[in-house]
Design brief:
Elements: H1 3-26, H2 36-43, H3 53-58, E1 65-66, E2 72-73, H4 76-89, H5 93-119, H6 122-134, H7 139-143, H8 148-168
Antiparallel strand pairs: 1-2
Helix pairs in contact: 1-5, 1-6, 5-6, 5-8
């Protein structure tokens, strides 16, 4: 196979292999229940019971996540994603874990795109994205429902870098 025909195949193979890597690394989390933190962040959080964006984004900070120690923090977009999970499946942990996995997979695909733009080598971009997909530092965020805000930060950060690289021509 010539290098010219191998390159398009690698561009097609790269996203498929990344999706497979993410699901192979974290598929076992789909059967997990809610962990200790999820009781405060999801199960007892009344804000996720409504998909009203006005209610979620205009709620006072003390109606956000109530932690075990009694402290609170408010993350409206994270609460909105929990509310969407709740609207689709109630308090079934499977849906919450699946959303975390899908968000991590989407972020990994964006890391591949960013690598393609900045490195301009499909193999190097794929290697970097696979390393991102399966790196142990992501384990807590992906496997715990309470880690959703960390995944969302990564998603928006990589998205911002992609937009910046497109605007500046990098």
């Amino acid at each position: 196979m010539s290098p010219k025909t191998a390159r398009p195949l690698l561009r097609i193979f790269s996203p498929i292999s990344l999706i497979a890597a993410c699901f192979l690394a974290y598929w076992n989390t789909l059967g997990a229940g809610f962990t200790y933190d999820a009781h405060f962040i999801v199960e007892s959080n009344l804000l996720i019971r409504s998909l009203s964006v006005i209610d979620i984004f205009s709620a006072p900070f003390w109606q956000g996540f109530v932690t075990e120690g009694g402290g609170t923090y408010y993350r409206p977009f994270t609460i909105l994603t929990y509310a969407m999970d709740f609207a689709l499946s109630g308090l079934d942990p499977y849906a919450f874990h699946l959303t975390n996995l899908l968000l991590h997979t989407g972020t990994t695909l964006l890391v591949l795109q960013l690598g393609r733009r900045l490195i301009r080598s499909e193999r190097a971009a794929l290697f970097g994205a696979i390393l991102f997909a399966v790196h142990p530092v992501h384990t807590e965020a992906v496997s715990s429902v309470a880690g959703r805000s960390d995944i969302l930060v990564g998603l928006f950060f990589v998205s911002t870098l992609l937009v910046f690289s497109a605007v500046t021509g990098l």
